Amino acid sequence: MRKHYFFQSKNDILRFLYFVFEFSIVFLMLILPPMLSSKQTNEVSLDFKLFYVIFFSITSIFLYFLVYSIPFSSDYLKKDKKPEKYSFFLLVLTFIFILILNSLFFILQKDSSAVSVNITQQDIKSKILLITQIFILACYEEILYRKYITNRIVTFMDFFHLDSQIFSFFAILISAILFSLAHRYMGFTACAFSFICALAFSICYHFTKNIFLNFIVHFAYNLVVFFHSC
Hints:
The chain is an all-alpha fold. It has helices at residues 10-36, 46-66, 75-78, 87-108, 124-159, 164-181, 188-208, 211-229.
């Protein structure tokens, strides 16, 4: 019986080392910091919000194209599909689900700050910039947690010739855990809420392979929370 090796050539080893290096940098710079944060300040200056818009815009674009940077990236998540007939229905269903879920957490908890952010902005310019920031952050989180992390975990499994279709669900679970931990500064309830929402977003992306649909539903939910908090 022929022995099977994980790495067939020197190029495979170099690609694997690049993969480890790349993911380590992203983990240390983007994934780990939110999990270490213990609080969030809502009262920030206009310039600081503008910095957020610029920073996360550039980071989102960089991460989106980084998914395609490794030649052996998993085909499971590598290319986005055109929206299928059921995509719009799945989009609406996901949005309704997280709204109902948010309502349930609101009922179970007296203080709703764990699942929403209280915004008090009087200036119209500040509100417009804040809405822009909400949109950019929604895109950033979807690219990082639904597209990049899931893709890289499945890619790692491909290195060891594991079935990507089966272990893709394991990758979705890991990305959901990381997403929930990124919201730990809002409390345990928010972590649980974020975890379930992450699974819903992941299912939406799993069946449509269209990250732009996730942008819409994530931003729409955040926008509802924003206007509710004003």
